[in-house]
C-alpha cells in the first residue's frame, strides 16, 4: 500500500530530518565563520556550534540507520548503529552541558561553590566538550563489545544459545541505554529545576523593588527556561522511545515506530530552532539573507 501510515510517516521523517540538517548546517556555518574570523568564540556559542554539528550528523545517521534496519541490512546497520550511538551520546552530553552552562551563568545563587562554578564554567567549556567525545567513545566501545558478544553467541547452531544471545542483547542494550541516557537527562532536569527556583526568588525580590522597564535578569531566566523546558518534554519522549525499542514493543515495521521517530526528532529540531533564533548573530544573518532574497526576487 503506497499510502499506508508507515509510508506517510517515513516521508515526513525524511523531510523533517533533511530540513533539520539544513538548519544545523546553517548554525555551524555562521558560528564557525565567526570562530575563524575572530579566532575566539563565547563559551555558550562554542557549545551551541558543537551541538549543531553533532545534531547534523545525528539526523543524517538516523535516516541511514532507520532505512538500513527497515530493509534488513543488519550487517551494515551494526556499523552505522555504533557510529549513531557515539553521536547520540555526544549529543546528550552537549545538551546537558548547555543546560548546566545556562543554569550556572543565569542563576543568582550566592553559595560559594556556585559562585566558583560561575567563575570557572567558561574556562571549563573546552574540557567539557572533550569529555563529551570521551564519553561518546566509551559508549560506542560498549555497544561494539555487546554486539560482538551477541554475534558470537548467535553463531552457535544451538537454539538455546541463539535465544540466550537475544536475551543478552536486549538486557545489555537496555542497561547501556539507561546508563548513557538517564544520567544526562537528570542533570538537565536538575538544571531546569534550579533555574525555576532562581527565577522564583528573583521575582520575589522584584516585588519589593521598583520594577524596571527592561529586566534583563528575568528575560534571561525566561528565555533559558523556555529553551530547556521545551527540549526536556521531547527529550523525555526520546528516552521513552529508546526504552521501548529495547523491549521490542514497537518494531521497525510498525507505523508507530516511524511516528515516534517523527515526534522525537521534531523535538530536537525545534530545540535547534529556538537556539538559532535566540542567538543575535544568527538572527542578524537570517534577517540579512531574507532581506537579500526579497530584494533579489523583486
What's the assembly state of these chains? single chain
The helix fraction, in percent, is over 70%
Q: Cα-atom Rg, whole angstroms?
A: 22 Å
- SS field, number of helical segments: 8
Name the helix and strand elements from N-terminus to C-terminus, one letter apiece.
Answer: HHHHHHHH
Strand content: under 5%
Tell me the distance between the termini: 44 Å
Main beta sheet: strand number and arrangement? none
Uncertain segments: none
Secondary-structure-derived class: mainly alpha
Instruction: Determine the mean pLDDT.
Output: 76
Number of strands: 0
Tertiary shape? globular
InterPro entries: TAS2R
GO molecular function: bitter taste receptor activity; G protein-coupled receptor activity
Main location: membrane
Protein name: Taste receptor type 2
